[in-house]
What we know:
78% of the residues lie in helices and 0% in strands. With 314 residues, it is an all-alpha fold.
Amino acid sequence: xxxEWSWAGAAVGVTxxxxxxxxxxxxxxxxxxxxxxxxxxxxxxxxxxxxxxxGGQPALHLFGFGELxxxxxxRLGDGLERVLxxxxxxxxxxxxxxxVADVERFRxxxxxxxxxxxxxxxxxTGLLAVSKRSLxxxxxxxxxxxxxxxxxxxxxxxxxxxxxxxxxxxLAEFPTVAELLALAVSAGExxxxxxxxxCRLSGGELADELRRCLADARAGANLPTALQGLxxxxxxxxxxxxxxxxxxxxxxxTPLADVLRAQAQDxxxxxxxxxxxxxxxxEIVMMVPVVFxxxxxxxxxxxxxxxxxxxFDL
Length: 314
């Protein structure tokens, strides 16, 4: 009974502290206007940017409290950015994952993941305390901090995993797209017309990137610059060589179809080489159970009759 009252008192104390912290954060002396808020009245006549140029990621919806908690999440994300750093790396991985480069949003998501990990750690410490009937306070705090750190790390790992998965899909689509481009160019289409035809007939991650290149070209950039943006966003060596080949063919007037076929053949060769490397690694991993499990049991069955005949007890 005493334990139940202690947990209830702890919950009431935490809730009271959270309420007092929110009240203190909302005091007029702490609601100082930022530089953006002070300059906003003088910049109202400025043209607003088009919504088509804004990021395509949805806003954070925290059970209807997204707008209320957004300033606090932004501050926590800024603090996390100052502590961890790595903003350019996060922006590159977001572009590789096909998302808008928004480091501030990712830090907010990382704060939410850390909060979820802290709550999971708190629940775990509660279960351990109930099962063991006693658990030291430093151990509980350490488990909560460990859960929060694990949540932040897992969010960062999820972003890198999404970027790698998307690049693998693009590499799988690349030979087919290159062959279609070569066929379109051989049929008499220009570079831009071939890209439009392939984007209209195909789908996938690489086709989406090519559509983005065409949109950049229609917006005023020349085709080599738009394709170079594709190479910069993805960071794949094969796509970089593909873009370099197209740019050289467009600028110098060399046969584009032969270049595209050669690029597709190179990607297929790279895919075979990667499969051979993965097969070699899997072969080594498959030897682990054979050497450490099957072979000792086989040796034991072989020497057991002789040892038992000599009188050794196993």
